Amino acid sequence: MAVDANMDTNNSLNTLFYPKTIAVVGASPDGDPFRWGGKTFIEGLVKQNYRGKVYPVHPKADTVLGLKAYRSVDEVPDEVDLAIFSVPASAVMGVMADCVKKRVKFVHIFTAGFSETGLEDRAKLESDMATLAREGGVRVVGPNCMGVYCPDGGVAWVKDFPSESGPVAFVSQSGQLAGHFIEVGKPRGITFSKVISYGNASDLQCHDFLKYLADDEKTKVIGSYIEGLKDGRAFFEMAKKLTVRKPLVVWKGGQTEGGSRAVSSHTASIAGSRHLWRALCRQTGIISVDSIEELAATIVALQDLTPPKGPNVAIVGGAGGGSVTMTDAAERAGLKVPHLSEATIRGLEEFVPVHGQSVKNPLDIFSVLVNPDHFSRMIAFLRDDPLVDALIYMQRAEWALRRERVFLEVAVRMTIEGARELKKPLFLILTGGQTLEGDILRREAQQRYAHAGIPTFPTFDEAAQAAYNLSEYQRYLTLRL
Amino acid sequence: MAVDANMDTNNSLNTLFYPKTIAVVGASPDGDPFRWGGKTFIEGLVKQNYRGKVYPVHPKADTVLGLKAYRSVDEVPDEVDLAIFSVPASAVMGVMADCVKKRVKFVHIFTAGFSETGLEDRAKLESDMATLAREGGVRVVGPNCMGVYCPDGGVAWVKDFPSESGPVAFVSQSGQLAGHFIEVGKPRGITFSKVISYGNASDLQCHDFLKYLADDEKTKVIGSYIEGLKDGRAFFEMAKKLTVRKPLVVWKGGQTEGGSRAVSSHTASIAGSRHLWRALCRQTGIISVDSIEELAATIVALQDLTPPKGPNVAIVGGAGGGSVTMTDAAERAGLKVPHLSEATIRGLEEFVPVHGQSVKNPLDIFSVLVNPDHFSRMIAFLRDDPLVDALIYMQRAEWALRRERVFLEVAVRMTIEGARELKKPLFLILTGGQTLEGDILRREAQQRYAHAGIPTFPTFDEAAQAAYNLSEYQRYLTLRL
User: Fold this and answer.
1) Would you give the DSSP letter of residue A49?
2) Share of chain B above pLDDT 90, in %
3) What distance in Å separates the CA atoms of residue B143 and residue A445, rounded to the nearest whole number?
4) Cβ of B340 under 8 Å from any chain A Cβ?
5) What residues of B are in contact with residue A405 (Cβ under 8 Å)?
6) Residue A274 φ/ψ region, left for φ over 0, alpha for ψ in the -120 to 50 degree band, beta for the rest
7) Which domains, and CATH codes, for chain A?
8) How do residues A210-247 score in pLDDT, each as one tens digit?
9) Do residue A360 and residue B443 have CB atoms under 8 angstroms apart?
10) Residue from B144, B160, B325, B444 whose CB has the most chain A CBs within 10 Å, to mutate
């Protein structure tokens, strides 16, 4: 049966991410350029160099952004892989009936005003619409969401999303957070294979997307923002299967009383208890994060680094109180800042002047950080030290402002070289945002590092959280496998 | 007796912050410009337009940076209020003997290599030196520290510290963190009355400085970084007296096992237990913070805002998932995001289109944030709502990049106006650092806000922590008074 074949999510989602034809329903030629709607969706496709065909659908317009417009979906003279709905909620049933008739494969319903309003008639409209689609063999993303970003497929909901493709997928119940995460990820060097904003999840749900991404060769790391699960069991089973193959990082919204209330007016979800969520993460190997900063830090670390074998870190780059507080932050995050092995300490003592410095962990050894030869010797000792699983290194771009610029150049080169020699993950904190001048230097260095595949973190706390999250994931895998 | 009079910390510390004459001992004319030493201390004084007299002391040089140099402190043809020691540890006893002879009032010992090395003979040298000073009536800051920054008095240890004076004092056992905090504070609009880096605390200790600052009219808010207390009882009594007059924010280093070890090699302090520290804070009304970010956020909030009367906040400026996660972060920080009063909800409903928005708390009302008239009406409702103690508002400077620049101009003006009308504290988050272009806009807006006395926070977590810390301090005061 055609309907059943279409229900095989794994094959069919490919068409969602790589549609050959897209109808944009409700694309008014006079749309406000600052409000999302049919017109801005078309602009996103044009800007992303989408290679398929775009068919605007509008009851009156002849053309939209130079493209010939059609009166309804079933008048489009082509098969339709994906239809984007940007019409009033009251028009959704009619447009869906056209899509069923036309045998459209996927629809993405941008329109809001359904179950998330808390109104009974609106919730009923959503479920009627979902039933109509299901019975007609049409798969639905949404309603109340931004849909799909797949740079590879030339699909995006915002015209200035990066067109570069990469190994990170993000499955988000919130379109706003999905967009924000893409923005935040860009300067950090996070690049995406697929991003989905799925809103009220009237049909396709988080676990459907995870199932597809588990097999997607272009995806190596998966992040997710979830407000509520309609089918907790299916999610649990899917996550458990997924995490032994690829890491899954989840930011769960609605973990507090107030947040849980907000969830119900946002996507009509039931947030569930914080304790249950924590237990689910422990059992499935999900890495749970609590902020956009921790999400970005953990994802970029998974994208670029091999997880540390354990929680033991060496800390370098602080001085005095900086070393003390970095150590506190590391241990508070769950890491250990252990004694170094005797061989390392004796080795370092050979070239580190003891005055005002310390070869104990945290290493307070400024003289080493400005001397490429000493730095490389330090790296070799840490590489060979079995008591060290990873290195956390704080580098201040603004120091270069006080010296010649070449100082930063030397520091960047020696750090890239050191990261290669270390053979253990390097969590590099790069600061410098206090002055605009310092920030420009920081951005330059950050780009050089990203280009060399070295992630950078803006604060020590983020680096420590990422290191801990990766080491815990590694521990889960070791116990599991 | 002269010695006893000098021991009256409160009178005498004034001379430390506003010395009329400073001898810099160990000011080599050929000092490395990138290493702190006698020469860089003199440069700091010159750049800060220090109005007193500076006397370089050097065994061989005739002049240092154009100033006539003397062979020893007792050859200086003037009274000496403050002598800065930048000499090898082995020379400190001799120089101190000269200072006693010369009846120098204060010495700041920059020199390291004493008890913090963990070596017995070095610890003995420190205590011998402290005894010599005490018996000779000389008060000592340090050793192993950066000394004093007092823009009002023209005293600074770095030439590029701001010369502007302000209401914040910072008492730090670590010179590195003191300098870092001054840097971090600058773009946030934190300005300083006095900053002290006091290192090993061989004589003057944290509570001595707090005692002075309690009475200092130029100081309204006090921050501190502490690794260990030599006289916990004196600190406890002082803090308890101080906090009913001025807020005291403390970042305690060495609260973890690794951090505690690091503390002993940094300032030879004994860090003490985390639990004892927490109990001490509860009993004394100290606001305890755990990172440079939380320290800066809390201090700038205390500098510019009246503490909220309670923990109930309204949240504005998120959208969708942003609202949900901001609410989670607020409640996780200890705040409450309560239902708004009926009057507020009914009032907002009059002009907020319900479609895709929410007048529940968190307020998801984008249309209001781009309409000065609606914004001002919203502010009036929140001002009059007895269920709301403070407003947390997230503003994204990068939105202005998508629209015309005038958009940001309007937003800034209407926010400054709104903050005035609110009559409750406004915790404003200002983001925009993803692109350099956005960051430049953010810095512009931040300056305008700082000029209007409105603090801004770079992340939601920081704003929430600051709001919670202030509301807890207010609660302490209410119970205490």
Assistant:
1) T
2) 74
3) 36
4) no
5) none
6) alpha
7) 2-139 (3.40.50.720), 164-304 (3.40.50.261), 313-480 (3.40.50.261)
8) 999 999 999 999 999 999 999 999 999 999 999 999 99
9) no
10) B325
